[in-house]
């Protein structure tokens, strides 16, 4: 971390006004002139846990350009992770992208300036820590992206170098001895998927407190007893990643506490601010924004919802809406998912209140409605509480957040319905999809291979009479947001109406002629 | 004061009346053990002073972010506000009551007991005796089975010692874990623990809610779940087949057939037989299924294995704990305090001994009305000697006594461990 420097090492205005910033003079003995091929003592390994802050001179220009290079890689990683690519493809594109912007070679590489690469990697990491430590949200996103980058490098690293690197970290993992191994043989075996005899004999286990490997616990990939998780060597990476993430998290919190005391002239501040905000704006595009400014033209009233629902709602919203019509009620997350979506298609707040009041029907008293529901509706329009104007939920959020409980109806039908119910739902909602048709089989195949958005896009194509593979945009995009479905669906309708109008006009002209 | 003698000295106390609640808070609520339980020390620590309390007052007024310096202040305020119920949150990074004077985002939840909530509503689709808000001794069986599985998993698998099970007053049960390592868990760790334990997943439209065998649905069960399954097999026979008779109606048996692998012959035969003789008991129907599957063995080994796994999943779906996972995942989730009065039933939220959970009968839990009557009666019997009796706590004269004693025993164990933990930290720091 860049220590808040004391007065005396601030470059005074009389000293070189060029781009040299001395962040910290302490221990700047490492020079960067080591142009030899081999690794230096400062950077013996390609991988780095970033434990010691760099204490060397850097120029302002480097300060910014290094950071921007890393930022590119991190925001690319974040964008990729939202695109639900298969694992290998994801790794490949991360590797390619970081080769372009933040090349990092292993010790065996020839003809590269290893120190220079590693210095860039280190400095860019520490600079970004400064810009990303400031809010819990930024910290979480920074850690997630850094973790993905580290993981990618870890997995592509030279095996010898990696094991030396791990040794240098000196983890105190407890090794499970033979007697304990044979005592829990049955249990350990059943946690090894595809258990061959010699694979079991050769495997060795570490014993760690269960909460140091939450991901392995959550996915039930390790045996746990008396609070200890038995982690096989093959899953060691989880332990390393966990250590990386928790150390980084602690360090970032510390940086956040000390940042206000960072004593600097006003040259670094703007750079740091700018870095964080460009990260935010670069990725915000995955949120839904109303396609055109004049939302007044697309206003929907409570009366119109039913009509729009029939014509333009995607399956998830149709399901919620139908259920609401039938039960006169939805559970909390269902109301949230449908409510924000309706806001997105242009239902203003006062109409939304009317809509929900009507849907709940006479069984609910006015009193109860006003007390328990109106607040939430107003809240989701940013009129209560912390006044955030929440965007409609994207498919990504619907698929992964707030999984439906036993009595809930929200979520994605392709993901959260059992196949039989999905077939019934689709065929009864969209008469153009027959139960035993090829299209239905197509859709179910996509669902089975967990490509829910592909299945949903297929439904869009069928119900709107467009070609398979056309998708919902100019670039044949798949459905990634319920509101984008609506936009495209309305566009298509407009095109049809325009065409009819044009035909009428030309008909009239024919008559005139 | 001696009341004029009547034939029937019972007064009809109404739990929804403020006077009754006030009498309860003044005379019966076990403040001392309650404070020690949350605080884990004799002197007020951050675990108490930085802890959020939320009160529900008459007319649905909800007061959040209250905190107190010590047990006396808490008692005074509780009596003054006289809430119909109150909830406990986490220890924050600062005193929650000061939150308006703090910088935005400075009030962060830090430590909190690991909590679980099991509610009967999640069982509505598989219980046949009651619906909605009702609960009886029979449907309590589901809760009892859940408690046993969860208690075992939390103790044996995760190594926790200080589990406090609390009846929620109507149709559910809560669990509070006060171990030091449980207090320190962050939200991610809590979430992973819950995901590990959670087996029943899926909404209304998902017929088969147990999917725990990997992508191909053919992996072995995790050893911990295997142990749970072994224990649940008996519960399944006793509870689901005999007591609840879950597959008696057409709706019941269709639900069963729907979650099995769809082999046309096997399922078709069963459906035909059962439609022909709908009076067959659940035990017999399950027997039909078992023998139909047994016939597959040797003939069609693949299908046999598939059905064998599916039947294990059925047992889990009908008996494995259905946890309200959101409650456990986040430190800042509020949960109703032990020894509150349930506003609907008037029953006290009392501790439940997990070893005797089978014998627990929600109908025998004391109501606030009963307790106050017992106090009246005791006062009458003691008459003038009341002054000399002042020293004892009043709950000792009521049927609340065994529950408070159970609570105190739990608290003593928590305190002992917390003291040892502190001592070892001290010794360590002395070594430097």
From TrEMBL, chain A:
The keyword Iron applies. Binds 1 [4Fe-4S] cluster. GO terms for molecular function: 4 iron, 4 sulfur cluster binding; DNA binding; metal ion binding. It comes from Kwoniella dendrophila CBS 6074. Pfam families: DNA_primase_lrg, DNA_primase_lrg_N. It comes from the Eukaryota. This is DNA primase large subunit. [4Fe-4S] cluster binds at residues 316, 395, 412, 456.
From TrEMBL, chain B:
Keywords: DNA replication, DNA-directed RNA polymerase, Metal-binding, Nucleotidyltransferase, Primosome, TPR repeat, Transcription, Transferase, Zinc. Pfam families: DNA_primase_S (PF01896). Its EC number is 2.7.7.-. One of its GO terms (cellular component) is alpha DNA polymerase:primase complex. One of its GO terms (molecular function) is DNA-directed RNA polymerase activity. TPR repeats lie at residues 52-85. GO terms for biological process: DNA replication, synthesis of primer. The lineage of its organism: Eukaryota, Fungi, Dikarya, Basidiomycota, Agaricomycotina. It is an enzyme of class 2 (transferase). Belongs to the eukaryotic-type primase small subunit family. It comes from the Eukaryota. This is DNA primase. The keyword Metal-binding applies. Residues 380-399 are annotated as: Disordered.
């Amino acid at each position: 971390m860049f220590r808040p420097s004391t007065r005396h090492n601030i470059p005074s205005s009389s000293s070189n006004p060029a781009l040299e910033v001395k962040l910290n003079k302490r221990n700047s003995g490492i020079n960067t002139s080591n142009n030899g091929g081999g690794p230096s003592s400062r950077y013996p390994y390609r991988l780095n846990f970033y434990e010691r802050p760099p204490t060397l001179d850097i120029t302002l220009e480097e300060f910014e350009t290094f950071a921007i290079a890393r930022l590119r890689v991190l925001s690319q990683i974040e964008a990729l992770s939202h695109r639900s690519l298969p694992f290998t493809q994801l790794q490949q594109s991360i590797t390619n992208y970081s080769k372009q912007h933040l090349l990092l070679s292993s010790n065996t590489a020839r003809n590269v300036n290893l120190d220079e690469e590693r210095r860039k990697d280190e400095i860019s990491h520490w600079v970004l820590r400064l810009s990303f430590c400031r809010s819990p949200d930024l910290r979480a996103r920074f850690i997630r992206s850094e973790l993905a980058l580290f993981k990618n490098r870890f997995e592509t690293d030279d095996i010898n170098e990696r094991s030396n690197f791990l040794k240098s970290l000196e983890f105190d993992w407890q090794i499970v001895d033979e007697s304990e191994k044979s005592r829990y043989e049955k249990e350990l075996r059943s946690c090894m998927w595809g258990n061959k005899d010699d694979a079991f004999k050769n495997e060795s286990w570490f014993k760690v407190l269960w909460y140091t490997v939450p991901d392995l616990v959550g996915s039930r990939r390790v045996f746990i007893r008396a609070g200890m998780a038995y982690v096989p060597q093959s899953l060691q990476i989880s332990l390393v990643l966990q250590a990386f993430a928790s150390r980084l998290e602690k360090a970032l919190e510390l940086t956040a506490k000390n940042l206000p005391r960072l004593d600097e002239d006003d040259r670094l501040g703007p750079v740091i601010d700018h870095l964080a905000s460009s990260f935010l704006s670069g990725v915000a595009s995955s949120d839904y924004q109303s396609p055109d400014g004049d939302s007044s033209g697309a206003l929907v009233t409570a009366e119109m919802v039913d009509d729009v629902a029939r014509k333009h709602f995607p399956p998830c919203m149709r399901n919620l809406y139908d259920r609401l019509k039938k039960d006169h009620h939805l559970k909390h997350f269902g109301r949230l998912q449908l409510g924000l979506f309706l806001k997105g298609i242009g239902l203003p707040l006062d109409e939304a209140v009317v809509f929900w009041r009507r849907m709940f029907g006479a069984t609910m008293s006015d009193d109860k409605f006003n007390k328990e529901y109106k607040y939430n509706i107003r809240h989701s329009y940013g009129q209560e509480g912390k006044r955030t104007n929440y965007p409609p939920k994207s498919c990504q959020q619907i698929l992964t957040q707030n999984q439906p409980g036993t009595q809930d109806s929200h979520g994605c039908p392709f993901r959260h319905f059992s196949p039989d119910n999905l077939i019934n739902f689709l065929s009864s909602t969209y008469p153009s999809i027959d139960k035993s048709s090829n299209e239905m089989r197509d859709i179910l195949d996509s669902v089975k291979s967990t490509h829910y958005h592909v299945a949903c896009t297929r439904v869009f194509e069928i119900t709107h009479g467009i070609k398979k593979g056309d998708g919902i945009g100019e670039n044949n995009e798949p459905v990634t947001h319920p509101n984008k479905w609506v936009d495209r669906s309305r566009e298509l309708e407009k095109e049809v109406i325009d065409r009819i109008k044009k035909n009428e006009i030309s008909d009239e002209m024919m008559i005139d002629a | 004061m001696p009341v004029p003698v009547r034939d029937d000295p019972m007064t009809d106390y109404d739990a929804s009346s403020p006077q009754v609640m006030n009498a309860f808070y003044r005379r019966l609520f076990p403040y001392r053990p309650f404070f020690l339980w949350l605080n884990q020390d004799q002197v007020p620590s951050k675990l108490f002073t930085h802890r959020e309390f939320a009160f529900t007052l008459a007319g649905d007024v909800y007061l959040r972010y209250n905190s107190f310096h010590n047990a006396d202040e808490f008692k005074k305020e509780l009596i003054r506000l006289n809430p119909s119920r109150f909830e406990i949150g986490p220890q924050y990074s600062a005193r929650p009551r000061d939150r308006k004077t703090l910088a935005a985002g400075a009030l962060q939840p830090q430590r909190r007991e690991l909590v679980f909530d099991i509610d009967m509503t999640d069982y509505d689709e598989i219980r046949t005796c009651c619906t909605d808000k009702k609960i009886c001794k029979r449907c309590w069986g589901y809760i009892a089975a859940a408690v046993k599985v969860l208690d075992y998993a939390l103790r044996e698998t995760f190594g926790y010692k200080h589990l406090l099970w609390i009846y929620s007053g109507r149709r559910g049960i809560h669990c509070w874990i006060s171990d030091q390592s449980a207090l320190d868990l962050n939200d991610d760790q809590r979430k992973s623990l819950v995901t590990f334990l959670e087996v029943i997943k899926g909404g209304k439209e998902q017929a088969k809610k147990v999917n725990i065998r990997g992508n191909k649905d053919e992996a072995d069960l995790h050893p911990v779940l295997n142990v749970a399954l072994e224990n649940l097999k008996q519960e399944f026979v006793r509870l689901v087949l005999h007591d609840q008779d879950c597959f008696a109606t057409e709706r019941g048996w269709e639900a069963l057939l729907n979650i099995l692998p769809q082999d046309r012959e096997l399922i078709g035969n069963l459906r035909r037989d059962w439609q022909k003789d709908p009076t067959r008991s659940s035990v017999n129907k399950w027997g039909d299924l078992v023998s139909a599957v047994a016939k597959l063995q040797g003939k069609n080994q693949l299908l046999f294995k598939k059905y064998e796994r599916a039947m294990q999943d059925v047992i889990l779906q009908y008996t494995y704990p259905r946890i309200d996972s959101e409650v456990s995942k986040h430190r800042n989730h509020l949960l109703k305090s032990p020894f509150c009065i349930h506003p609907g039933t008037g029953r006290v939220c009392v501790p439940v001994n997990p070893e005797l959970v089978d014998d627990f009968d929600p109908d025998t839990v004391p109501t606030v009305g009963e307790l106050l009557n017992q106090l009246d009666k005791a006062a009458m019997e003691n008459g003038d000697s009341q002054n000399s009796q002042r020293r004892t706590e009043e709950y000792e004269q009521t049927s609340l006594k065994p529950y408070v004693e159970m609570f105190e025993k739990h608290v003593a164990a928590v305190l002992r461990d917390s003291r040892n933990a502190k001592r070892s930290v001290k010794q360590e720091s002395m070594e430097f």
